[in-house]
Design a protein that fits this description.
Elements lengths: L4 E2 L9 H7 L12 H15 L4 E6 L2 H10 L7 E6 L2 H12 L3 E6 L8 H10 L5 E5 L1 E2 L4 E2 L2 H8 L6 E5 L11 H4 L3 E5 L10 E6 L1 H7 L11 H8 L10 H17 L1 H22 L13 E5 L6 H12 L1 E2 L1 E2 L8 E5 L6 H17 L8 H14 L1
Parallel strand pairs: 1-12, 3-4, 3-5, 5-8, 8-9
Antiparallel strand pairs: 2-10, 6-7, 9-10, 11-14, 13-14
Helix pairs in contact: 1-10, 2-10, 5-6, 11-13, 11-14, 12-13, 13-14
Length: about 375
């Protein structure tokens, strides 16, 4: 028997309380039974997003929320700015181009964070830019962009909105939607919210809604105005993902019991401990600046394929982590510490990495990384 451990940056493990809630008999999505369920989810998401704005609940992956963040607020040939520092920055560009927008990119070297002054300069040179798109946590590189500073730059411009992909950052980082002035923020169920894939969440500011009034891009399924109207009645525009929304309520209850500040601190602590353990093994981080609390990207040792490390962890030890994406494929592997995760998940991951690397001929002292995890844990608890 091979016991399985899920340490990927999505989907993430699901708490038993959430699985139990989702095993309840199905209810109809237009019945009076469902209205309080969705009302509770709506309020819970506002708590998590730290916002008074609407947070739409879509039956889709996070990418559906990204698509809706484009086609509901812009018109053909509108000029937008995309911060492209990884595989998911590229996704913003591809979505915008698919809808006929003029995309200006700030290319950020993978493993590095965007410089806020580059964004400010781009907006000064092109004052007709109507939207700035960025990832909070760029999952492919393990980098967190400075959302607070970027928000301060964009919110000064009356005709430009700030759109954040927070799919892997939500619950792992402190994202203050209203206080910072984030206009649109996209989340997904299968990351820090500890649910199966299938829900996207989108918060929308009044500034963004005003832009939506003049937007001319086509939309049908991802029609945010109709979703907003439905949400006011504690419904969704189309068939609700009833079971997932029941699970969402249970997940939010767990997060609220822990406390948002504690949830974010837990992710931060797990990320810091993971990075120190990786360095103790003798490995280097792929993220050279501002590493993410959600996932740690690790450079594979010279002469060893990062995909082979990922595959061996999974096939031999039952540890599902993640390989590299795009131009980082084969060069890195990634360990998540996201959602339903604690310190013993990190010990399992580090132990597995040490054994796999030893088998592949990498010179290391077994147990050094695990010892670092234990040492840091004891220091934090003393």
């Amino acid at each position: 028997m091979l016991k399985k451990y899920l340490l990927a940056p999505g989907p993430t493990p699901i708490p038993p309380e959430v699985l139990s809630a989702m095993s309840m008999p199905i209810i109809h999505h237009r019945s009076t039974d469902f209205i309080p369920v969705l009302e509770s989810a709506k309020k819970g998401l506002q708590w998590l997003y730290q916002t008074k704005n609407d947070v739409l609940i879509l039956c889709s992956t996070g990418t559906g929320g990204m698509v809706g963040a484009v086609n509901n607020f812009f018109s053909p040939n509108d000029k937008v700015l995309v911060i492209n520092g990884g595989n998911f920055g590229e996704r913003w560009t591809k979505i915008c181009q698919a809808y006929g927008l003029q995309v200006q990119e700030i290319a950020v070297e993978w493993g590095y964070t965007v410089k806020p002054e580059a964004v400010e300069e781009a907006l000064k040179k092109s004052p007709d830019i109507k939207g700035v798109f960025v990832q909070a946590s760029e999952t492919s590189t393990g980098v967190y962009h400075d959302i607070q500073t970027l928000s301060e730059i964009v919110k000064k411009r009356d005709n430009t909105i700030f759109i954040v992909d927070a799919i892997s950052a939500l619950a792992a980082h402190d994202l203050r939607t209203d206080k910072w002035g984030i206009d649109i923020m996209v989340g997904g169920s299968q990351k820090g919210l500890m649910l199966p894939p299938g829900l996207a969440f989108v918060s929308i500011s009044e500034k963004a809604w005003k832009m939506a009034d003049n937007a001319k891009l086509p939309r049908f399924y991802f029609n945010f105005k109709k979703e907003r109207e439905a949400l006011a009645k504690n419904q969704t525009n189309f068939t609700s993902a009833v079971t997932l929304i029941i699970g969402l309520n249970e997940s939010i209850k767990l997060l609220q019991k822990e406390g948002l500040e504690n949830v974010i601190k837990r992710h931060e602590n797990l990320a810091n401990i993971t990075r120190q353990a990786i360095k103790a093994i003798g490995l280097e981080l792929y993220s050279k600046e501002s590493p993410s609390n959600a996932v740690t990207a690790i450079l594979a040792p010279e002469g060893i394929d990062g995909q082979a490390i990922y595959k061996t962890l999974k096939d031999k030890y039952g540890i599902t982590a993640a390989g590299g994406q795009g131009k980082a494929k084969g060069k890195i592997f990634r360990i998540a510490h996201l959602g339903y995760a604690d310190i013993f998940d990190i010990i399992i991951a580090i132990s597995g990495i040490e054994m796999v690397l030893a088998e592949m001929g990498f010179p290391l002292k077994l147990g050094r990384g695990v010892a670092m995890v234990e040492k840091l844990l004891l220091l934090r608890s003393s």
